[in-house]
Amino acid sequence: MHEATVGPVATPDLNLLVALEVLLEERSVAAAARRLRLSPSAMSRTLARLRAATGDPLLARAGRALVPTPRALELRDRVGPLVRDAEAVLGPAAVIDLARLERTFTLRSSEGFVETFGPEILARVRREAPRVRLRFLQKPDKASEPLREGSVDLETGVVGRSTGPEVIAQAIFRDRFVGVVRADHALARGRMTAARYAGAEHVVASRPTRDPGPIERALEPLGLAREVTVEVGGFATALALARATELVATVPERHTAPLRAGMQSFALPFEVPGITVSLLWHPRLGADPAHRWLRQCVREVCAARDRSRR
Q1: What pLDDT, on the 0 to 100 scale, is given for residue 47?
Q2: Measured in whole angstroms, how far is the alpha carbon of residue 119 from the centre of its chain?
Q3: Contact 201, 229 (CB under 8 A)
Q4: Do 301 and 120 meet the contact criterion of CB atoms below 8 Å apart?
């Protein structure tokens, strides 16, 4: 006794759903053809395929008109929602209703960014999307794994060699390094020189590598080097120590504005390249409308603060 051989199941042509919906609405091959911009013969062939797929005539001749069969009437109420769902899946994302959006976004940044820009970002988010929650994390390094793995939605920082090649970066503002001391520090008085700066005791935010940073590279041609007394994990800690001791902290100016309140800041007396702070995100979130809205919020808040400083 031979076993029956079962062939592969044919995948249905989902384009037929659109044709079926139009045919059931128009009840005319010619009218359906005009609506779908097909020839009458092509529309007739499509109807034949629909009959073969469903095993039902669907539309039967009644005089000069076509009338739906009971099977067609049963399908009529089901096919419309199926077509709308397919269009929603395959089409661009719909415009989101921010007032009803419920989502938690995780943002990662270096110390100072949240203190400087966080209040205005929060105020805008609460005003436009009151059900959205923000979760801010410290950024200890430039590794892109959190963005790649999805544990972080958006990041701010300077693009570096360890930034993943697939990560999208968009510049949001330029910044420069400044020196910072407590108000009654000796360096707060008199003309600042590279020698005076380098000769002081310094606290620095530690780097993940031992490569010389921009300050060291700028001082080297002058035959100078900083005396680094303390290394800490971030700008806030460096400034807290500088506020209470004789240490000098060197930090990004815009990034740390609120943290430097009541302290003396000064331009560095030698050339140091500025830095570009960027938004970073993974490409899979590029077209997400809610994520796109959040990126716009952060960009515009940073731009507004930049204009207010001028």
Answers
A1: 87
A2: 19
A3: yes
A4: yes
CA distances from 90 to 15, 83, 86, 87, 93 (A): 12, 11, 6, 5, 9
Q: In the numeric block, which tokens belong to residue 44?
A: 């007739």
Question: What is the CATH architecture of 15-90?
Answer: Orthogonal Bundle (1.10)
Q: ∠ at Cα 241 (119, 239), nearest 5°?
A: 35
Task: Give the pLDDT confidence of 17-33 residue by residue, as tens digits.
Answer: 888 888 888 888 888 88
| Confidence check: pLDDT of 243 > 90 | yes
pLDDT > 80? residue 49: yes
Fold of 104-175+276-309: D-Maltodextrin-Binding Protein; domain 2 (3.40.190)
Under CATH, which number does the domain 177-272 receive? 3.40.190.10
* Encoded amino acid at 240, one letter: A
229, 257 in Cβ contact below 8 A? no
- The answer to whether the CB of 205 falls within 8 A of the CB of 141 is no
DSSP helix, strand, coil percent of the chain (3-state; round to 5) = 45, 20, 35
Q: How many CB atoms lie within 10 A of CB 251?
A: 26
Q: What is the spatial distance between Cα 280 and Cα 159, in angstroms, rounded to a whole number?
A: 8
